[in-house]
Amino acid sequence: MTPPSNGQAAESNDHLVQSDNPEHPANLIPSLCAKFWTLGWVTGTGGGASIREDDLVYIAPSGVQKELMKPSDIYVLSLAAQAQSLDRRNRVYLRSPPSYKPSQCTPLFLAAFTKRRAGCCIHTHSHWAVLVTLILETQGAGKDREFRINNIEQIKGFGKGFEKSGNLGYHDTLVIPVIENTAHEEDLTEFLEEAMDKYPDTYAVLVRRHGVYVWGDNVHKAKTQCESLDYLFQLAVEMKQLNLPWITDIEPVTPRKP
Amino acid sequence: MTPPSNGQAAESNDHLVQSDNPEHPANLIPSLCAKFWTLGWVTGTGGGASIREDDLVYIAPSGVQKELMKPSDIYVLSLAAQAQSLDRRNRVYLRSPPSYKPSQCTPLFLAAFTKRRAGCCIHTHSHWAVLVTLILETQGAGKDREFRINNIEQIKGFGKGFEKSGNLGYHDTLVIPVIENTAHEEDLTEFLEEAMDKYPDTYAVLVRRHGVYVWGDNVHKAKTQCESLDYLFQLAVEMKQLNLPWITDIEPVTPRKP
Amino acid sequence: MTPPSNGQAAESNDHLVQSDNPEHPANLIPSLCAKFWTLGWVTGTGGGASIREDDLVYIAPSGVQKELMKPSDIYVLSLAAQAQSLDRRNRVYLRSPPSYKPSQCTPLFLAAFTKRRAGCCIHTHSHWAVLVTLILETQGAGKDREFRINNIEQIKGFGKGFEKSGNLGYHDTLVIPVIENTAHEEDLTEFLEEAMDKYPDTYAVLVRRHGVYVWGDNVHKAKTQCESLDYLFQLAVEMKQLNLPWITDIEPVTPRKP
Amino acid sequence: MTPPSNGQAAESNDHLVQSDNPEHPANLIPSLCAKFWTLGWVTGTGGGASIREDDLVYIAPSGVQKELMKPSDIYVLSLAAQAQSLDRRNRVYLRSPPSYKPSQCTPLFLAAFTKRRAGCCIHTHSHWAVLVTLILETQGAGKDREFRINNIEQIKGFGKGFEKSGNLGYHDTLVIPVIENTAHEEDLTEFLEEAMDKYPDTYAVLVRRHGVYVWGDNVHKAKTQCESLDYLFQLAVEMKQLNLPWITDIEPVTPRKP
Q1: Which residues are the active-site ones (chains A, B, C, D) (predicted)?
Q2: Please, are residues A74 and A94 in contact by the beta-carbon 8 Å criterion?
């Protein structure tokens, strides 16, 4: 059998996206994206989501209305097959939908799966995320490369980091690196990977004037970390409007009765 | 058969709005408008939407509660028949609902269909659109006739222009012309057409203190461009509240690994 | 048959609230209130709605969770019977629900029905309405007794006034009177009636630090006027945050091609 | 039968969370939490809710996605059994879900049930609540330990206090105590109980940079008080943005016709 020259698998492999189980990635991605659309995270076909199960990666296509996506719209690729490819940009899909193009987010999702063994990665265009990166631009001396906030309960919604157990504490400072946007989304990949190397424990990277990538060990963790982060971004913007600082020095309260 | 004198077709032609296909324009306009009502785009019977399929134009009526619209509420007219009419304001409907009046937006929708060969046109009263036109009023020297924003990822949600392929880039400046509102909505038509002539590549025109008209080659493109634009209008208002400029000069980031 | 002494009809008259027609007032009030709850108009059992059909008035009870209301929760009274009552505060209900108390809004709804022949009256606690009355408080010299806005398209959503045909125009100034809140909601009635006398063409009265009463000839008009008003209140608050004036002097734009 | 050593009941007691009645606590907690998720109160697994029926307490587990909760996820414990336990921190559950951990909110919910005989307690991370506590931080001299607001109609949504009948009036000042957040949520318990002792009539306690606990005699009262409070917190933040004071001195309006 001659390999297909156009990056498409010879067989349709439609069975990979057909399941009666609502928890199957091909069903879960559409239902998650419909929810994200309502939250304003994937407006106007922006943003996206991807789930990895063992070797298989399921990805929403480019240019789809996220609240109307169907399981049959989903791309599937193999991490192992992809790793053997000499050209990172030539991706071989096990299964492609008939009428869409692959998402430009694909190599960024793959970075989370390969460098962090994530089970799910979510990309939002939430305007709270964009506003946070814009507010940071007004701060000089390299301070705009990190979003930092502490002493907010919702910070507990984040894991301590890659291969570490437990979650951040109330007094811990959550640090999310910010990378500059590039003209082409695929070109973000090397900068996202750099940020992952420099901040090995982060579960998210902000992209200036663009949005945020958030991942987690599984769908549950990626989604709830993404919700917690959007909550903190919204709070941070509202704090800025009220002239309240994101970082404070608070004396821990000690319980009297141990 | 004597032509009807009252601008109504002699036959009811109800079959034109009866279909089991949810993608039929007579079904799609109500479902779209219900979604738009939830987004705050068509509050209090304001705003509307129209779809063109070849020669036939489907239009929501005037004064209808947009989240409650039914396929039987839809007007249908023929572009060819309309073109032969000597009086632009005398429109002959192939099919009229029994208990509504035609939308005052009709000639504005027709402008998008005839001058830009659009397949769908959406009119919203989104208060983000209205606020953008109000903020622009505070800027003198004719600067209030254009909304301009650049270096925001969501700008990629717009096509490059009429009969051009491809989309705008991240560093491109999105320019949306602003026309002044008139006492009667039909009177906007000539100014909308003027703006289309002056800005041949725009897919939208803002109407001061009123809202926005957005179109696209088909329903998908009109809707996603309208969502992207509303996203940008909201972002622009929030940027204004935070004293962040809409236009910036940013050095493009070049990928190191080509 | 001895008349009931406790203001309750001897018979249950449950048939008055039982109908398969979704447009029946006893079905419509719950579905409207569920929608209003989502809009933030009737949070925490605040606000309410009433519909009149000829002599019969249907009213949501006091203290009910508005998104959970059922047709069997509805009160029904007769306008004619109420008019014969010597004591305005002693209302005889044709039908009462078993486990609720009558709404304190009842005499205010009745004022709209008797003084304006309204078919529906809506009372919201929308915080946009409350904020508008709070902003007005900061303006002295009696200027706080009226909300005024002009040159916004959505103003066209209001009728010209009681027994007048046609709607307000874009350049017309919408004037909504503001009355002071009283400790007991029933005590608002005389002030609401005074405002109706002083502003015979208004379809709404703002209540300081409380909310708004909006009515219309029928459910459609009351609801769409209430939506348009809430839209304008929200816009007015956002304009205030951006230092944009509510009243402007704009030269009308004349169409060149008549 | 030897008592289980790990804080789990020997029997599964699954029948305690199985009912066809939508008003059963095991059904009501998931439907309430789904609604709260939509309101932004329980984002990212934050917040929670608990219902008491006589001796039995039903509690949402820790770490669950609140809009996806199922009746089988609910913990059940006995107040009487808990009262006999020498160690407050060792709780014996009559029924535990197979795959979750108990909520850290449990001792705080129990405080409302035992010290106030509440029938329901709700904990939200609403960012309006958090913002109010942040704004209060900017006020010195101990003024940051109470949220105070008066002369807003929605204040009537609160009961006068523990074992008192009737509700607050329009001119009454609603006072909600604020306690400092602790690193571990369970450690809040003693401070919450202290606040209950110091403010015996309050139905809510704010937790700095964290959220709010709200309770009521039953589900209806806890939920509507929580809604009213969130409404007031949102209003208070918006008033702050517009430089409007939370406390004012207003002359009561007296009705002329008694």
Answers
A1: 153 (proton donor/acceptor)
A2: no
Residues 6 or more apart whose Cβ sits within 8 Å of residue A20: none
Dihedral sign, Cα of residue C146, residue C151, residue C154, residue C158: positive
Q: Please name the chains neighbouring B, where neighbouring means 3+ C-beta pairs under 8 angstroms.
A: A, C
Please list every residue in chain C whose beta carbon sits closer than 8 Å to the beta carbon of residue B237: 238, 242
Tokens (6 digits) for D208: 């700095």
Say whether A125 and B231 touch across the interface (CB within 8 A).
Answer: yes
User: In 3D, which of D54, D55, D48 has the Cα closest to residue D74?
Assistant: D48
CB neighbours of residue B70 within 10 Å: 13
Please check whether residue D188 is in contact with residue D181, taking contact to mean a CB–CB distance below 8 angstroms: yes
DSSP string, A97-159: -TT-B--TTHHHHHHHHHHH--SEEEEE--HHHHHHHHHHHTS-TTGGGEEEEES-GGGGGSB
CB contact under 8 A, A253 and D187: yes
- Given a contact cutoff of 8 angstroms between Cβ atoms, the answer to whether C10 and C1 are in contact is yes
Residue in chain B nearest C149 by alpha carbon: B209
Is A192:A213 a contact under the CB 8 Å cutoff?
Answer: yes
CA distance A94 to B96: 50
d(CA B130, CA B124): 10
Per-residue pLDDT of chain C (258 residues; tens, 9 = 90+): 344 444 444 468 999 999 999 999 999 999 999 999 999 999 999 999 999 999 999 999 999 999 999 999 999 999 998 888 766 667 889 999 998 999 999 999 999 999 999 999 999 999 999 999 999 999 876 779 999 999 999 999 999 999 999 999 999 999 999 999 999 999 999 999 999 999 999 999 999 999 999 999 999 999 999 999 999 999 999 999 999 999 999 989 988 765
ipTM of the predicted assembly exceeds 0.85: yes
What one-letter code names the amino acid at D205? V
Q: What is the per-residue pLDDT across B30-52, written as a single tens digit (0 to 9) for each?
A: 999 999 999 999 999 999 999 99
CB contact under 8 A, A125 and B154: yes
Give the span between the Cα atoms of D131 and C256, in whole angstroms: 53
Backbone angles phi, psi at A163, to 5 degrees: 65, 15
How many residue contacts between B and C have a Cβ separation below 8 Å?
Answer: 78
Q: Which domains does chain B carry?
A: 7-103 (3.40.225.10), 127-250 (3.40.225.10)
Residue D211 and residue D129 in contact, taking contact as beta carbons nearer than 8 Å: yes
Please tell me the distance in Å from C100's CA to the nearest CA on chain D. 13
Give chain D's residues under pLDDT 50.
1-9
Q: Is D142 left (phi over 0), alpha (psi -120 to 50) or beta?
A: left
- pLDDT for position B258: 58
Classify burial at C161, counting beta carbons within 10 Å of its beta carbon; exposed 0-12, middle 13-18, buried 19 or more.
middle
> Per residue in A233-250, pLDDT tens?
999 999 999 999 999 999
pLDDT digits (tens, 9 = 90+) for C19-53: 999 999 999 999 999 999 999 999 999 999 999 99
Q: How far apart are CA D115 and CA A186, in angstroms?
A: 58
D123 is in an annotated binding site: yes
Closest CA to A61 of A18, A109, A24: A109
Q: Is A210 annotated as a binding residue?
A: yes
Helix (H/G/I), strand (E/B), else coil: A27:
helix
B68, B125, B192, B238: which to substitute to probe chain C, counting the most C Cβ within 10 Å? B125
Q: Which of D153, D163, D185, D194 is catalytic?
A: D153
